[in-house]
Write a structure and sequence with these properties.
- By secondary structure, this protein is α/β, with parallel strands linked by helices.
- The protein is built from eleven helices and nine strands.
- The two termini are 34 Å apart.
């Protein structure tokens, strides 16, 4: 499989793409990142005019035949990320899930080898039976990843995912308190952006944005939270997670059903 992979980008190219992605987070306009799952979808988003794109671990894993949440082999996810990053001339931030149990130095090297300009790292513990990683331990891990990236020569944009809200741990008030605690810890550890995934409550989003400055929320087409409203709440970046992939697959399933009906009507197999 490695023979089919693109040649690694130079560290200068990776660093330049990371610098561009950092600038895009600085405003004044909100950064809108679609989520690609393969080279073809990445090229489509680039051709549409997006200045950068993200990947979706759920879409990538499904396209490879695996489940999300580190159900796919890390090597295959990295290979897919590499093909996506090399397919376009714009920065790509890679959903690296929780890091696949790798130490910080290995994560940094893998991301740079992919040609990533940034990454998501989440605080769910997929390797240890679920639940959340201890917040202080996660903060130390994020700091180590940032240090390892800089040592490699490319300061990638680190988007630290806070999974309190997706796991619905406690009452809404308890979720917010823990989400804020983790968000502050992760920013202090060096995370460039905080990602409270699946958080949709506008007051909570605004409070986290005020607390840490740079926040990524996920939205979906036709959903209750729009890009414009997210910007008004102080959000600096929006992504679409797996929603675009799911919409695309729903269309494919519809076409598949239509083709099958035509085949059956014609007496085919």
């Amino acid at each position: 499989m490695s023979e089919d992979l693109p040649q690694p980008m130079t560290i200068e190219t990776v660093a330049a793409r990371a610098a561009t992605l950092h600038q895009l987070h600085a405003g004044p306009n909100i950064l809108v990142l679609p989520n690609a799952w393969d080279a073809a979808s990445a090229r489509a988003f680039e051709q549409a005019g997006f200045p950068a794109i993200a990947t979706t671990s759920g879409g990538v894993a499904s396209a490879l035949g695996f489940q999300d949440h580190e159900g796919a082999p890390a090597a295959e996810m990295s290979a897919a990320a590499s093909r996506i990053a090399h397919a376009v001339d714009i920065p790509v931030t890679v959903d690296f899930e929780a890091g696949y149990g790798r130490p910080a130095a290995d994560i940094a090297r893998a991301l740079i080898n992919c040609g990533a300009a940034g990454c998501n790292l989440e605080d769910s513990d997929h390797q240890g039976g679920g639940g959340l990683v201890d917040a202080d331990r996660q903060a130390e891990h994020l700091a180590a990843v940032k240090a390892a990236l800089r040592a490699e020569g490319a300061d990638l944009v680190l988007n630290a995912r806070v999974d309190v809200f997706v796991r619905r741990l406690g009452t809404p008030e308890e979720q917010l308190a823990e989400g804020l605690r983790r968000a502050r810890l992760y920013r202090e550890a060096g995370a460039d952006c905080i990602y409270p995934i699946l958080l949709s409550d506008e007051e909570m989003i605004a409070e986290i944005a005020r607390a840490v400055g740079v926040v990524n929320v996920n939205i979906r087409r036709g959903g209750p939270l729009s890009v414009q409203r997210a910007a008004a709440l102080g959000v600096r970046r929006v992504t679409y997670a797996t929603s675009t992939f799911r919409e695309t697959m729903a269309f494919v399933e519809g076409v598949a059903g239509e083709l099958r009906s035509v085949a059956v009507a014609a007496g085919g197999r």
